[in-house]
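Fold this sequence, please.
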Amino acid sequence: MSQWLALLIAMIAVCAVVLTVVVIRQRRIGDDDDPSQTPDVIEYMTMMIGVIYAIVLGLAIAGVWEARGSAQDAVRAEAQALHEVKARVQVYPPAVRDKVRADVDIYAQYVADHEWPYMKKHGDLSARGTALLDQVRADVTRFDPKSDLAAQAYQPVVDQVAAADEARTARGQNAGSTMPAMVWFGLIVGALVTVGLVFVLQIRRSARELLLAGLFSALIAFLLFLIWDLDDPFGSGLAVSADTIRNVVLG
C-alpha cells in the first residue's frame, strides 16, 4: 500500500467517524435544545485550545522538516567528499588511483542499494558500510607519495575521506524517528481533544456544518500523517533518497 493511499484511507476514515458521531448525537438531542445557549466561556476555551494545538502542530512540522533538511545536507556532503576523493587521486600512480576509485564506487554502490533499506528498517548504519569506508581510508592513508604533485594531493585526499566519514556519521544520527514518543502522545491526544471540541459546540446536521466538521477532521489527519511521514528522513514517501550519491559519485 502506497503512502498516499494510506493517507486517503485515513482521512476518509476520520471523516466518517466524526460525521457518524455527529449524526448519532444529533438524533439524541431533544427538540427543545438551543445551541445558542452555549456559554461564551466554552467558545473562548475552544478557540484557545485550537490555537494552542495549531502552534504545537506547526512546531512539530518545522522540527521534522528541519531534521529532513539536515539529513539531506549530510547526504550531499558525503557524496561531494567521495567525489572529491575520486577527482583528487588523479595524480596518484595508476594502480593506486584505480584501487581508490574502485573502492569508492563499491562503497557508494553499497550505500545506495543496500544501506538505504537497512537504515529504513533498523534506523542505523550498517557494519558492512562502515567496513567499506574503512577500506577507502586504508587505501588513501597507506599510500606513500613519491612525487611532489602526489605529496601535495595526499593531505587533501585524507581530509576528504574524513569529511565523508563525518557526513556518514551525521547521516546515521538522522536515521530513524526524530521525534520522542512523548511528543507523539501529545499530538495524538491534542488531536482527539481538538476534534472532540466539535461536539462541545453542539454542531448540527446541516450540510454546511457537516462539511466543515469533515474538512476539519481531515485536515488534522493530514497534518499528523505529514509529521509521521517526515519523522523518518530515510523512511518512505517524502524521505531523502540515495539519488544524490548515485548521481554525484557513480554518475
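The mean pLDDT is 84. The first helix runs from residue 3 to 27.
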